[in-house]
Specification:
It is built from 7 helices and 8 strands; from the N terminus they run βαβαβαβαβαβαββα. The protein has about 240 residues and is an alpha/beta fold.
Length: about 240
């Protein structure tokens, strides 16, 4: 049995991944934005071990979420699934980029880290010139490029942790829309597979996956100088350093 924390698991891919992992006998801790959503999801997934709340668009709430998670257990895997799409650039950056950075930095180091990216990261740019004063320049594609950069930076720095980015595909969730063409089941199965599988193909680090297979990624994600600059900016904005 593995202990797994999944952000953004009130619905969509996060909830489906949680359901699968619970059915497989794993101990799963859910995360929702607020208490109301927590009540709803625990009715749908009564087998979950716990539900933590915290708005990832709020830096202080994200820090508090990490603190509460650390008081529960030491997780074997953390799936950074939470994400937003049709909202302001500020929200996109805070939830999609800064949220997983803060949680990664503050939570006890797990054995596996899975960062949910998107095929749209291929069209993203780091836009690291001055995020603090030009945050309105950050697009969804940029934020999903940041996620891959973060996954690769952690893989480079933390040799004992499997850290990978996953593209679930354009699937029929609330975010993807009902007419999305990709395979929904393969979308949530891949992040679940990375969290618990003993398959040698899953026990790797610094890779980008689509439906349990390695895929090519935006070359900008592999630029170490850009990775370091992203970490520096996230540190400056959040007051949290990735040091352990």
């Amino acid at each position: 049995m593995s202990r797994i924390f999944i952000t953004g698991s009130a619905d969509g891919l996060g909830q489906l991944s949680a359901k699968l992992l619970i059915e497989q006998g794993h101990q799963v801790v859910l995360h929702t934005r607020n208490a109301e959503r927590a009540k709803d999801v625990i009715k749908k997934l009564p087998g979950a071990d716990h539900v933590l709340t915290g708005d990832l668009s709020n830096i202080e709430e994200t820090k508090e979420l990490a603190e509460r998670a650390n008081k529960l257990v030491s997780f074997d895997a953390v799936i950074h699934n939470a994400g937003v799409y049709k909202t302001s650039a500020t929200q996109i950056f805070h939830v999609n980029t800064l949220g997983p950075y803060i949680l990664t930095s503050l939570m006890h180091k797990p054995k596996r880290l899975i960062y949910m990216s998107s095929g749209m990261h291929l069209h993203g740019r780091p836009n690291l010139e001055d995020i603090k004063s030009n945050i309105d320049r950050i697009s969804y594609s940029d934020s999903k490029l940041h996620v891959v950069m973060l996954a690769f930076a952690v893989a480079r720095k933390w040799k004992g942790v499997y850290s990978n980015a996953v593209n679930p595909g354009w699937v029929a969730t609330k975010m993807g829309g009902k007419n999305a063409p990709d395979d929904l089941q393969k979308g949530y199965e891949t992040q679940s597979w990375h969290a618990v599988s003993d398959d040698d193909k899953a026990k790797v680090s610094g890779r980008y996956f689509f439906h349990q297979k390695e895929r090519s990624f935006n070359p900008l994600a592999g630029d170490v100088q850009s990775q370091e600059r992203l970490l520096e900016l996230c540190d400056e904005i959040s007051g949290v350093a990735l040091i352990h």
